[in-house]
Every structure is written in C-alpha cells, then in structure tokens.
Amino acid sequence: MASVQTKAILPEDWAVVVLGFVIIILFLAGMTVPVPAFSWSNMQELSEKVFTAQNLAKIGAQFVLVFVFSVAGAWLTNKPVKQAALVFPVVYLLTVVALVLAGNKGVKDLNLEAVIFSLSIGLLVGNVINLPQWFREALSTELFVKIGLVLLGTGVIFSDILKAGSLGLVQALVVVLSVWYFAFWLCKKLKVDDELTMMISSAVSICGVSAAIATAGAIKGDTKKLSYVISLVLITAIPMMIVMPYIARYYGFSQEVTGAWLGGSIDTTGAVVASGTLVGETALKISTIVKFSQNVLLGLAAFAISVYWTYASKGPDAKQEQKPTLGVIWERFPKFVIGFVGASLLFSFFLSPEKVGAVKDGLKSIQTLWFVLAFTSIGLETKFSDLFNSNSQKPMYAFLGAQLFNVIVTLIVAYFLFG
User: Fold this and answer.
1) DSSP string over 404-418
2) What percent of the chain lies above the pLDDT cut of 90?
3) Alpha carbons 396 and 381: distance in angstroms, whole number
4) Which candidate, 408, 203, 171, 162, places its Cα nearest to that of 287?
5) Which end of the chain is more exposed for a tag (fewer CB within 10 A), N or C?
6) What residue intervals traverse the membrane (predicted)?
7) DSSP secondary structure string, 35-52?
8) Which tens digits make up the pLDDT trace of 26-40?
9) What SS3 class is residue 334?
10) What are 40's strand-pairing partners?
11) What is the rounded distance in angstroms from the CA atom of residue 285 to the CA atom of residue 259?
C-alpha cells in the first residue's frame, strides 16, 4: 500500500520564523547557552582551551539546542524526522572541526572564516565518501540558513545607524547603489544567470557573505551558486586586505580617506578590521563605521530584492507570461525577511540596551553556528564538478570586474567625503 503524503504543519519559510523567534524568546527569558572557545595559536592552547572538559561541555550544550531545533524543523515541514536526527550529529561534528580550524590564530590573521572550512570539509567528505541518497536528502541546508538569517536580525540595531555618522551613511548609500547596479549591469552583459547576478551584485556592494546568504534566501537561490559566490568573496578579501593599506600608504592617503576606502571596498568585516589595523587607529575607526553603515542596509536590500524577484516572476516555478497578483507576490515572498526585520525591530525599539547586551553574544554564537552548519550541508550535497566548472568563468569575471569598480568608486567617494 502506498504511503500517504501528509501536509506540512508549516511551510519552511514560516517554520524558520517560528523557530528563530522561539530561540530568541528562550534567550530573552533567561536561557543561557555558554559560548564555546575555539581560538588557539598552538597545540598547547588547543588542548588547554578548546579540548578541555568544560569547553567540550559548552560545545555539547550548543549541540543539544541546534539538534532539537533541527529535528523540530524537520517535523514542522513534514520531512523524515528519523533521518534528520541521524544525519544532524554528523553535520555538527564536521562543523565543529571547521570551527576549530577557523579558530587558529594564523587562519584568523588571513581572515579565513569558518564557512569556508565547513564548505571545504563538507565537499571533501561528500566527494570522497559515497553518501547514501537518504543522507543527502535529509540535509536541511535552507532551514539552517534561514534560521541564521532570522537571528542575524537581532544584530541590526537601528540606533547604531545613527552612531555610524552621517558621512558613513552617505558613503554607504552611494557605494551600495552604484556598485550594485554596475554589478547587475555587468552580469547581464556577460550573460550570467539571474540567480548568480543577484547574489554577486549584493555580495560585492553590501557586505559580502551575509549579503550573499540573505539574497540567496530572498530569491530561493541554488545553494551551489551561493557557495561559489561566497568562495569568491572570501578569496578576494585576502589580497585586498593586505594590498590596499600599502597602496594607500604609497600614495599618501590620509587615515580618514583610507579607512573609508577600506570599509567601503572590502566585503568582509573581519578583513576590514584587519586592514584598518594595518593603517592606524583613525583608519580602523572610520573603516569600521563605514562597513557597519553598509551592513545595516542588508535588511532593506533583502526586502527590496524579495519584492523585485517575486514581482518580476523570477525563479524556476515562475510563469513569465503572467504578472503576479498581490496574492501571488505574498505567496512567493520569502517570509524569513519578515523574521529578520521583526527581530531587528524588537531589539532596536522594544528591548533595553542592557537586555540586548545580555543576550547578544549568545545569539550571535548560535547564529554563526547555523550558518556554518548550513555550509557543511552544502558541501556534503555538492559535487566538485557542480561548484567549479566551465560555466563558472563568466560569473568570476563579473565578480572581479564589479569588485574593481567598487574599489575605484569607493575611493572617489571617500576622497570627496573624507578628504
């Protein structure tokens, strides 16, 4: 007798909002999940800081939290709960390995983030070991990404926008808009597909990895394409982080101009901080302000991209010959954006700074963990041939061209505003 397919309790888009807010509410209610230490510089520190019984207990506590919510997500969306429960510990173990590798001081100095290690480990395991089909199907990549995005909203505080300063905000708006549209135009000229076009445009213009992830969620993009874009972001950030401060010093740029240039051009916050430190305290401060000004635009950008994508009838299931009604737009609209914005509003206007300060580190740690889990899953379900093939050259050229434009335009704007 054929099994009857039961309906999901909640669509995945709403399930991630519910799960994300349950996590937030638990933290606000006083639940504490200790943040594990992953930083180390030598083997002695690795054994004395990371692999201690106390720290392993913290890692275990985080496992319990994300395991429960992962299984709950499978149940809410009518995915096989047993398979999800069997697969998740494997994904978590590989993710912890990635976090440990990323915690090394030398790795941090190179600004290699945990997601690149989790993706690499997942790719290695997934391509070397012949994983059964049920294992791959039980991976909950989108669930992990979108829960992380809802939690990301807790870190976007509207009052901090004012602290960024008017000049930082002006530069962020000018750079984000001009670079996004140039990247979009260049991708179209090179005939890059629509999904990659949106991800590349957002990653180059806004804030790198987070923008790419948010855009992929907003357009329900292919996770393999997301992995490719994030690889480009992280790889190009390293030479930019090292070379740009020396260019600024060679040409005698002021610290204010240099900081604004670095903050507006380099796509990852860690690389911005590292490069600003190479220049000086003033450059570090300005670069951080400018980068934060761009980061706070992420919610608005995700919302705008979501509306554009749904209204333009993009995506594999869209019928291009019909303009969608408001009802269809709402149906296609990625609901995690509502969770992201709702979390941001909650933490901006309804909670005291003391309460926000008390929970932000724990929530940030869990948010990062969801993202790293997602990229481990992406690696496990991806073949090397899918990630890097002959079709990946044009997107790479588009990304590099847009990044060059970003560097030039940002320098001009930085000179105009801070020179």
Assistant:
1) HHHHHHHHHHHHHHH
2) 39
3) 22
4) 171
5) N
6) 14-38, 59-77, 83-102, 114-131, 143-162, 169-186, 198-219, 226-248, 260-280, 292-312, 332-351, 363-380, 396-418
7) PPP--BSSHHHIIIIISS
8) 999 999 898 999 999
9) coil
10) 104
11) 7
What radius of gyration do the chain's Cα atoms show? 21
Encode pLDDT of 185-199 as tens digits.
999 999 999 999 999
Q: Give 216-267 as a DSSP string.
A: HHHHT--HHHHHHHHHHHHHHHHHHHHHHHHHHHHTT--HHHHHHHHHHH-S
Report residue 342 as tokens.
Answer: 């709702």
Integer CA distances (angstroms), 260 to 8, 272, 282, 353, in order: 48, 10, 10, 28
The number of angstroms, rounded, from the C-alpha of 385 to the middle of its chain's C-alpha atoms is 24
At position 202, the amino acid (one-letter code) is: S
Report the predicted TM-score, pTM, of the whole model to 2 decimal places.
Answer: 0.73
Q: Are 24 and 363 in contact (CB under 8 A)?
A: yes
Which of 242, 288, 293, 243 has the alpha carbon at shortest distance from 269? Answer: 288
Amino acid at 378: I
Contacts of 289 (CB under 8 A, 6+ apart): 163, 164, 165, 168, 259, 263
Residue 392 DSSP label: G
State the Cα–Cα distance between residues 372 and 375, nearest whole angstrom: 5
**Three-state secondary-structure class, residue 30:** coil
pLDDT band at 1; cut points 50, 70, 90: very low
d(CA 71, CA 85): 6
* Residue 378 burial (CB count, 10 A): 26
Give the residue among 304, 293, 252, 303 at the shortest CA–CA distance from 410. 293
What is the pLDDT averaged over residues 315-328?
52
- Structure token pair of residue 211: 């923008």
3-state secondary structure of 419: coil
Q: Which residue has the tokens 């829960």?
A: 147
Give the span between the Cα atoms of 171 and 286, in whole angstroms.
Answer: 11
